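Table S2 (text version). Query chain:
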Amino acid sequence: MVSARTGLPALVRVLRSQRSAIVFLTVPDSLVEEVATKLAAAGAAIPRSVAFVHSSGALELGSLASLGRRHPVGSFHPLRSFPEPGSPDRFRGIVIAVDANSASPRRLLSRLARDLGARPKRVDDSQRAISHAAAVLASNYVVALIAEAARLLEQSGWTEKEAVEGLVALAEGAVTNIKKRGPIAALTGPIRRGDAQTVTRHLAALADLDAHAGPGRARKTGLYRMLGEVALEIAKEAGLMPAAAEQTRRALTRKVAATRRRSRK
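Corresponding structure-token output:
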């Protein structure tokens, strides 16, 4: 790992004697171009055969353009979250998005992914932002959604530990079903059944929480509606009858008012 401001001279000294090497620039996205520019300034001190690779899911190869004029450059983005250091086994079975400015380093990065037990998938500049957005939805936003669901249970009297344990088990079951059957067949719940009455009850209860939330925190009904509309499209693909789908759509979009007070004095 190199920093944009420290460690670069030492790295250049090490690379002088390398006939071939891959240097991974595992710095924040905002610093990749700066690091690349400083390394490129070393010129002939770094052999041409040394390749430079960033691990960003969103940055194009152009962020390494200053190095790309002399060296192979590429990207290597694992579709896995790494909140803390772990063993190489954490790469096993995952997909790693790879690309490079020529075929040879692209093959090398694909082979490295396979050596780690992962599956390489080429993702070029035109695909990278959308692919990374998809990864964020499936990872970071799942964390955000579980956190929001846990807060709802805590407001109902659960402890944080009880809420997280219960919801993680539920989510793991859903992911297992997706893996076995695909997302369309895996969908369950009131929207898949076309249970408009249950959807209405949910929204009324969430509206009550929103009505008592602080400024800027009244978002629960909006989140439920937004995800509900996505789920409704999946339910229709799964075979939900048009009449039930329309009733559910109306329930999702109908204005509801809080039906009860959370506390009385």
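Notes on Table S2: The chain has twelve helices and five strands. The CA atoms of residues 41 and 265 lie 70 Å apart.
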